[in-house]
Amino acid sequence: MNPMNPMNPTNAMNPMNASDQMDQTDQMDETDHLYAVILAGGSGTRFWPWSRELYPKQMLALLGPNSLFQETLLRIQPAIPPQRTLIVTNERHAFDLKAQATSIGPGYRFLSEPEMKNTAPALGLAALHLQREDPEAIMAVMPADHLVRNPSRFLGLLQVATEPARRGFLVTFGIKPTRPETGFGYLKAGCLLPGLAASPDDKVLQVERFVEKPDRESAQGYLASGHFYWNSGIFVWKASTILKEIQAHLPHLYQSLKEIEPFWGTPEEKEAVANAYASVEPISIDYGVMEKSSAVALIEADIGWHDVGSWSALDEVCPKDASGNIRSGNLLDLGSQNSILLAGSRILATVGLQEMVVVDTEDATLICPKDQTQQVKQVAEEIKRRQLEQGIVHPTVHRPWGHYTVLEKGEGYKIKKIVVDPGARLSLQLHRHRSEHWVVLSGFGRVKIEGRSFELHPHQSTFIPILAKHRLENPGPAPLHIIEAQIGDYTEEDDIERFDDQYGR
């Protein structure tokens, strides 16, 4: 990183002059320009087999009834309303995330990338969007999959960060390291920047150096020095500031993003974004901007932060039994110690394990030592390379109308159990490569096939030919359970042509 040379050194390095000071009303008004930007992409590799490509870590309820994504929304809600919360994700995850956000409350806004190109393009796209809406927009950027144990302190520091951000700094939340972790970026803190914090307890520091994921020996040295912080990935900056930094350090990305601007709010917007992304190289905001910028400031963030980056990280955040085990599900254990034992619905029996991780799901099981959980990502990538479904999606898939479970599939057929929630209905659709047979197990459904409507009750069935427009809904008070047998030369989920869908797919 270059030596610190802030954009406005006179104001940034010295206390505010009286003429610069804002009264209490202005300070309150300043929060109207504060927007949350939630980074909710993800590849579903680090928590395989619970996480999958289409169901990554942020969607998992690892630590309670809510997913990590939902906990992030709840954390910021007292300070930033849903209408000023922008969730940046990719098109493959947007629908499921919208469903999770809706369960928290209405009004959340989404910005979908056509493909994942790491954090610099995502944040550049978000900054361009917000600057167009509000030239004074301040972005509070945070990943959707982190844990914060002290949310009130976190919200307080967000307010602290708005002043240096308003002055043109790129503010990052720094975490005091507790171990020589090699999976995080490190920030070397310099002198205190005066006049940028309202309380002596809130430290805003100059950043002298940014080191991304050092080796273990270096990490041990950083820990011993006492001058380094972990980079939490939580940032606060003005949208206009980060765009200027991207222009300076990633000019090709900046130019690609600017080509989108004439199309905002038009029918051609989606195509313009896709065209821009086609020429963008994947790069993180850390490598692309933060390591190069001379305007980075750090706030010491004592917020109970955890990245929860691998299975072994659960040791830091989950309750344990008397033998030091983290356990859940249908588990039968004899004599294991200090292990992570996560069963599903089928019985998982473990005997005498020490420092192990065992995770069982409907269609895949992970077994590895705790000290090798970082290699789970390689396992997930190999599964993807082999094009196995176990890396993409779970057998049970949740939809806004209910869920389905794939019971069996083979050459030319697939058998599902479908559950439709009371009052819900599927889209009006057709399939070009398969026919379907429906048998009702319980509840009753209303079926529409080529304009003809009728009801189906338990023990009754119907047949949907190839190319027939059809719809299934549940008008009853109880869930509708059916067995669906698909037969055809192609039975994958993308063989759906929708004509009417209340969920906007």
What is the fold's blueprint, element by element?
Elements: H1 9-13, H2 24-30, E1 34-39, H3 68-76, E2 85-90, H4 91-104, E3 109-113, H5 119-133, E4 138-143, E5 147-148, H6 151-166, E6 170-175, E7 185-192, E8 204-212, H7 216-225, E9 228-238, H8 239-249, H9 251-258, H10 269-278, H11 285-290, E10 296-300, E11 305-306, E12 326-328, E13 331-334, E14 340-342, E15 348-351, E16 356-360, E17 365-369, H12 376-385, E18 396-399, E19 402-410, E20 413-420, E21 428-430, E22 434-442, E23 445-449, E24 452-456, E25 461-464, E26 470-473, E27 480-488, E28 497-500
Parallel strand pairs: 1-2, 1-4, 2-3, 6-10, 12-14, 13-15, 14-16
Antiparallel strand pairs: 4-9, 5-11, 6-9, 7-8, 7-9, 8-10, 16-17, 18-19, 19-20, 20-27, 21-28, 22-25, 22-27, 23-24, 23-26
Helix pairs in contact: 3-4, 5-8, 5-9, 8-9
Description:
This protein is α+β, with helices and mostly antiparallel strands. The chain has three domains: 9-13 and 31-306, Spore Coat Polysaccharide Biosynthesis Protein SpsA, Chain A (Alpha-Beta Complex), CATH 3.90.550.10; 311-379, no CATH class; 396-500, Jelly Rolls. The chain is 24% helix and 30% strand. It is built from twelve helices and 28 strands. The protein has helices at residues 9-13, 24-30, 68-76, 91-104, 119-133, 151-166, 216-225, 239-249, 251-258, 269-278, 285-290, 376-385; strands at 34-39, 85-90, 109-113, 138-143, 147-148, 170-175, 185-192, 204-212, 228-238, 296-300, 305-306, 326-328, 331-334, 340-342, 348-351, 356-360, 365-369, 396-399, 402-410, 413-420, 428-430, 434-442, 445-449, 452-456, 461-464, 470-473, 480-488, 497-500. A hairpin with a 4-residue loop joins strand 16 (356-360) and strand 17. Helix 3 packs across helix 4 (91-104), helix 5 (119-133) crosses helix 8 (239-249) and helix 5 crosses helix 9 (251-258). Residues 1-28 have low confidence and may be disordered.
